[in-house]
Design a protein that fits this description.
16 strands, ten-stranded mixed β-sheet, two-stranded antiparallel sheet, binds NADP nicotinamide-adenine-dinucleotide phosphate, alpha/beta, 407 residues, binds magnesium ion
């Protein structure tokens, strides 16, 4: 059999540490033997970012805008300690933040679910995807530590017209003060991404805020979602047999816990930050959480939700065996290849991406897994393998699946 061909390049963003090691293994063992990989390669390893004054990150994001699909390895976000470790010129911005800024995207996170790992919530049968509006609110807030008595007020000065002023609080003593903002433009992008993704994956969309308390701020989110749904997506939702509904965040939390899963939950920035950690932990492990950045103009960037697994990398450097879970990184590749195939009408590529995912799930369900999962596994006696061992085991399963499907 000849290798699968790709018509359009997939934008490949390499990264750091243990995930960089896994990245190379995945390409060598699980992709290159089957596909004539056509990627436009960007090395986002910290040294390369430093050498190029982070231009490489910007170029990679622009390449995703050009071709529509990218796959990204986890990268180190520079901090003080990394500045010393890598002797960096500057404390470069997080690549994810840079890419998100350029693509204006919303981050969607979905757990990979297997039968031998039971979610902490017994009723959950299907994955729950969290869509986090990763812009503004408390993350872009201006804060004052109020030292003592005084008046706090809020003012807005329009370009034309007279300013609006409100007293927030008459402080009798020390306290705290915070000013938050968001923009209609960003809220609209967020809504479009969520409606489109729900349609694409044929899942209900839930949206929650606290509009009963936040009568202007959260209400604006609610009204924008409502307007966009009514004018743009309602009939497509009805045709697809899926539902959009808005509810208070308190009610959403209760419903999520009682649900059987299988829907998209759109959250404001802070809610999404907290709830995605809650959902991923309740489903099992960060190493099983996939992540896709989706832009309003239809660009996709697939990655794992976890970081570069530094502690495992240091052990690897010392020559010790590691048992690092490659699942989320493999699913980033399969997701990106599938999307590339879909956009190019390349059915063979789509089929391969699905086979790769099936091979991963079959291997785990068969009890062969990394240490992190073995600790969570119920009902079977797991066989714990190394990082290279799990990739080899998946390759064996993949070869069987591909042989079978060809007969
Ligand atoms: P991390 O790399 O996600 O790892 C934290 C811990 O979670 C690991 O020590 C490990 O626990 C467990 N873990 C995560 N992924 C795993 C996997 N695939 N298999 C097995 N165990 C896994 O987070 P971190 O240590 O906080 O951050 C490390 C670096 O990653 C930092 O430089 C950070 O800036 C960067 N980061 C990047 C991204 C991104 O690029 N998207 C996201 C987050 C963090 P045990 O040690 O207990 O086995
Ligand atoms: Mg968080």
């Amino acid at each position: 059999m000849g290798k699968i061909k790709m018509t359009t390049p997939l934008v490949e963003l390499d990264g750091d540490e243990m995930t960089r090691i896994i990245w190379a293994m995945i390409k060598e063992k699980l992709l290159s033997p089957y596909i004539e990989l056509n990627t436009e390669y960007y090395d986002l390893g910290l040294m390369q970012r430093d050498e190029t004054d982070d231009e490489i990150t910007i170029q990679s994001a622009n390449a995703i805008r050009k071709y529509g699909v990218g796959v990204k390895c986890a990268t180190i976000t520079a901090n003080k300690q990394r500045m010393e470790e890598y002797k960096l010129k500057k404390m470069w911005k997080s690549p994810n933040a840079t890419i998100r800024g350029i693509l204006d995207g919303t981050v969607l996170r979905t757990p990979i679910v297997i039968s031998c790992i039971k979610p902490a919530v017994r009723t959950w049968e299907k994955p729950i995807t969290i869509a986090r509006h990763a812009f503004g609110d408390v993350y872009g807030a201006t804060e004052i530590r109020v030292p003592g008595a005084g008046t706090a007020s809020m003012s807005f000065k329009p370009e034309a017209g007279s300013p609006e002023n409100r007293v927030i609080h008459e402080f009798k003593g020390a306290g705290v003060l915070q000013g938050q903002f968001n923009t209609d433009e960003s809220i609209r992008s967020f809504a479009h991404v969520c409606f489109k993704y729900a349609l694409e994956t044929k899942q209900d969309l839930w949206f929650s805020t606290k509009d009963t308390i936040s009568k202007q701020y959260d209400q604006t989110f609610k009204l924008i979602y409502h307007e966009i749904y009514e004018t743009t997506y309602k009939s497509d939702f009805e045709k697809a047999g899926i539902e959009y509904f808005y509810t208070l965040i308190d009610d959403a939390v209760a419903r999520v816990i009682r649900s059987s899963g299988g829907f998209l939950w759109a959250c404001k920035n802070y809610d999404g930050d907290v709830m995605s950690d809650m959902v991923s932990t309740a489903f099992g492990s960060l190493a099983m959480m996939t992540s896709v950045l989706l832009s309003p103009d239809g660009c996709y960037e697939y990655e794992a939700a976890h970081g570069t697994v530094t502690q495992h990398y240091y052990r690897h450097l010392k020559g010790e065996e590691t048992s690092t879970n490659p699942m989320a990184t493999i699913f980033a590749w399969s997701g990106a290849l599938h999307k590339r195939g879909e956009l190019d009408g390349n059915d063979v590529l789509c089929k391969f991406a699905k086979s790769l995912e099936t091979a991963c799930l079959t291997t785990l369900e068969g009890g062969v897994m990394t240490k992190d999962l073995a600790a969570l596994c119920e009902g079977i006696t797991p066989k714990i393998v190394t990082t290279a061992g799990i990739i080899d085991a998946i390759k064996l399963t993949l070869d069987e699946i591909i042989d079978l499907s060809e007969n």
